[in-house]
Write a structure and sequence with these properties.
With 359 residues, the chain is of the alpha/beta class. It folds into two domains: 12-68 and 139-228 and 335-353, 3-Layer(aba) Sandwich (Rossmann fold), CATH 3.40.50; 232-331, Rossmann fold, CATH 3.40.50. 31% of the residues lie in helices and 20% in strands. The chain has helices at 12-28, 52-65, 98-101, 103-111, 123-133, 201-212, 264-273, 292-305, 314-320, 339-353; strands spanning 39-44, 70-74, 86-89, 116-119, 140-144, 156-162, 190-195, 220-228, 232-233, 255-259, 278-283, 309-312, 328-330, 333-337. The protein has a nine-stranded mixed beta sheet with strand order 3-4-2-5-1-6-7-8-14, with helices on both faces. The two termini are 27 Å apart.
Length: 359
């Protein structure tokens, strides 16, 4: 397998935008806060749709199952109620709803028993909050969507690239879809190609690392599959410790799809690959809050389309659960990283625990 990264853009605007990123990194160097536990960041260079939430869940579950106490630190994008720090889960399920915590933190809190979740714009403060408030202090912090969050030092940076569009055209905003230049990959310790379907994870990871070498990347390359699970009906209202899923949706059920995500087409493709006919697809903006008007639109389209079930992504489900008087089902997505990634991660964390450098 081969991947080819685009040549660096020659536009003056792109150069200026890249220079601004370099100045920002330089300003934070020496000023970033440090937590007294290892910090592992999971992030990306493009805007949305790289599989960060499933990857964070997979890494957190691996670390938890290996005997480590894990706390996820998230900004809590889209939450209301001010910029303060909030404990979303102490490991016993979600304590807050998506309006106060954000959709992805609530999803992670429900899917990861034994893993704490804390949200706050100031991730260092959120980490200190976890150390002070949790009954058992975390052994390791996972920084969700943290690559561009330079105010907190991290020990390992994992950078995700979606296989469908790994390099986002190679251009920064406003002419492209990158939030940072590809040269920023030089700061990462590992690059991970994420994608659906059949993926030779060993070959794909090596190909990604080779493609990034001209940009200064010297870390390890890995790959992770993204696998949908059988859609299941949501049968309970959201609450602490409640998974919210019931019986599997019968094969052949006509589905009204509802999604407020960065890549809605990938959600539709997933449902169709699972063998469910799509009666209609309502697409909302990423992180949509689903006010009453949106709920009414969903109900109207459900009856007009002849659908028998509303299917949603996990982060949409947490905002619709208990509010939609229609048969609602979630299509869970799980990340399946190459085993080599977890071997590498455990070795790096062991080096850090022994007092060595990860870089």
């Amino acid at each position: 397998m081969e991947l080819a990264a685009p040549s660096p853009p020659r536009s003056p605007w792109q150069w200026l935008y890249g220079a601004a990123h370099a100045l920002r990194r330089r300003w934070h160097r020496g000023r970033a806060a440090r937590l007294p536990r290892p910090v592992v960041s999971v992030g990306n260079l493009s805007w949305g749709g790289s599989g960060k939430t499933p990857m964070v869940a997979a890494i957190a579950a691996h670390l938890r199952d290996g005997g480590r106490r894990v706390a996820i630190l998230s900004r809590g994008y889209g939450r209301r109620g001010g910029p303060g720090v909030r404990l979303v889960s102490d490991g016993e399920g979600p304590l807050l709803g998506p309006m106060l915590a954000g959709d992805e933190p609530v999803l992670l809190a429900g899917d990861l028993p034994g893993v704490a979740v804390v949200v706050g714009a100031d991730r260092a403060r959120a980490g200190r909050h976890a150390l002070e408030r949790l009954g058992k202090a975390p052994d390791v912090f996972l920084l969700d969507d943290g690559f561009s969050h330079l105010a907190l030092e991290r020990d390992l940076d994992l950078l995700l690239f979606p296989a469908a569009d790994p390099f986002a055209g190679g251009r920064l905003l406003p002419g492209g879809r990158l939030r940072e230049p590809l040269a920023s990959s030089a700061r990462a310790d590992a690059a991970i190609l994420t994608g659906y379907g059949e993926l030779d994870r060993t070959a794909a990871g090596a190909a990604l690392a080779r493609a990034l070498r001209p940009y200064g990347f010297r870390g390890a390359g890995f790959a992770a599959g993204m696998a949908p699970e059988q859609p299941r009906f949501v049968t309970t209202a959201p609450g602490p410790g409640q998974a919210g899923s019931g019986k599997p949706v019968p094969p052949g059920s006509r589905a009204l799809l509802v999604s407020g995500i960065a890549r809605p087409r990938s959600f539709r493709d997933t449902v169709e690959r699972l063998g469910f006919p799509v009666a209609d697809h309502l697409v909302f903006p990423d992180h949509h809050e689903y006010p009453d008007a949106s709920l009414a639109k969903i109900a109207r389209r459900f009856h007009e389309s002849g659908a028998t079930v509303v299917m949603a992504t996990g982060k949409d489900r947490v905002k619709l659960q208990g509010r939609l008087e229609l048969p609602l089902a979630e299509v869970p997505i799980r990340a399946a990283p190459a085993p080599e990634l977890f071997v590498w991660l455990d070795e790096r964390l062991a080096e850090i625990a022994a007092g060595g450098s990860s870089r």
